[in-house]
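Quick one: WD40 repeat domain-containing protein from Gemmata palustris, structure tokens please.
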Amino acid sequence: MTRLRSALFLLGIISVTPAVGAQPTPLKAHGALVHSVAVSPDGKTLATAGFDNVVKLWDLAPDGALKEKKALTGHTGPVYAVAFHPTDAKLVATASQDKTARIWDVTDGKTKFELKGHTDIVDAIAFSPDGKSLATAGADKSVRLWNPADGKEVKNLGAHDGSVYVVAFSPDGKTLASAGAGKDNLIKLWSVKDLKELKQLKGHEQPVTSIAFTGDDKVLVSASMDRTIRVWNVVDAKETKKLGPTTDDPYALAWSEKAKTAAVCGYSGLITVWALDADKPKFTKAIKNPGYCVAFAADGTFVVTGHDNGTVAVTPIGK
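--- reply ---
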């Protein structure tokens, strides 16, 4: 997605009105931009993925303090995405510009499986809630399911008509959503059991940059370069709420079931937190560097964002 973001960088910066308030002090984490962050299910570890081809693991304290503990090296291109296994603390999955995804055993820092099949950048990766499936998608326009137990591809589910930037499983694991660019800027829904496309969510007017299910299997939230955040009923395939317009291009979105809010990181560095029944963000913070990714702490009290200059920032937002 950086290819698209870079083209619109100046537009995003020019049109942003910075938020007021003190800014957190970012921590230098990588030698190049940080494109993905993820918090482990127990909330004690942060994973960061960088365009320096490295994935790093950090001890994450309850107050957001970070201490580096391990680097995972092996990708031969920038790392676009990272995800924790939901039940096995030893496993982390990554996606890279080198056209591969990997499953790592973090106890020894080595690759357990290298997933080959994509023919272009692998932009997105996600484990199912039970950890028995792994989804990937990328610039080859395909969405694929893998068996993380053996690293083998289960099925190439199908394709969008543009690069696919993000994938997300529903809480019950029955539905996979995917989204990205393409002439219709679609969000597609796939049946994990039947391995086929179910429905399409249509409404965004520009590429969809991020999606997340809430704690309700029926509710999906999306962010787009049309500067809107939209809420969908996936059963009826209908939009139920449109938030925005946002003041900059929203490039990453995360949901906290604890806080019942969505956090959005914009390309200007703007961080906003939204309640889905409100028309304006309940929290806003500006960081003076383009942001690519966002993740909530396990308890929903702060967010972690990754930035263009290789830094990560921890921003308290309260409960």
